[in-house]
Amino acid sequence: MSINSISGAYNSYGSYRATSRTTSVSAPKISVSEDGLFEPISSKVSGALSDEYVEQIKACARKAAADGTNMVSSGYASMRDAQMGKHVSPDRGRAISQVSTMLNNPNLVLRPGENLFDLLSIPFTTTISRGPMFGTTAEIYSKNGEMIAGYRDSCGWFDVPTKDETRFQYESNQIYREAYNTAKAELSNGAQQTTAPAVSGDVAASFDVKA
Question: What is the pTM (predicted TM-score) of this model?
Fold first, then answer.
């Protein structure tokens, strides 16, 4: 992605820096990449899938199977997202806060096209554009070039999942579904055994055999 030049090597604004370099960002805008599903699991994802976390997933699945509820009602979805936010997700909140401050800065100078800024306190970059057709737009990228969040005047801020986040959610959901199906099968088998007619003694004992 070629960024329009900004006069000078960079202009410092305290928490961010305008730069004239060309960014190596290659992530598709807005669209969510699922490439992470076809690559080896990263150490970040495997570390987040701890034994304790997996047992918590299974407990939520068993609860949902027994109660007839779903991922949300069982507490699984919120638990999964909390684990992901703690161990897998980039610091979106901090990055969005900084870029929001930039967008609200009346002294921010934007050239035609995309303007590239480094966020100095965190390893992210952002591109900001302003035009008559789409208004103000912004995109935030992680240090490895993945788009993690975007802003549009028409809809505000939105998250863009990373490969690690997509893979973490996929692996977690697979564990949940397997545990849920197993619990459902066990409950079904238990119900069938409970309702089956009881047979006492030997079948032949029910006949009156006389010499």
Answer: 0.75
